Amino acid sequence: MDAGLLVQYAVIALAVVLSAGYVARRQFPGPVRRLRIACAVPMVRDGRPSWLRSVGLWIAPPALDGDGACGSGCNGCGPTRSGH
Length: 84
Prior knowledge:
Order of helices and strands: HHH
Number of strands: 0
Largest sheet: none
Radius of gyration: 18 Å
Shape: flat
Helix content: 55-70%
Number of helices: 3
């Protein structure tokens, strides 16, 4: 296989994965949040290496305030990050 063709396939695969991630985050925010939490929790436990803990903190979603305007606690009006 030609190296240029391999690079082209890699770029297309990366674009497909990023697009699928974007759609999943926009259409299914609750399940994506639960998946991020499930992946991050084992990484941030005591006794893990510091590099693994930092990866877990990077994967973990931001904390929710729990006081949505409609009273449901989902904060469905949009994500708010401090400092933005």
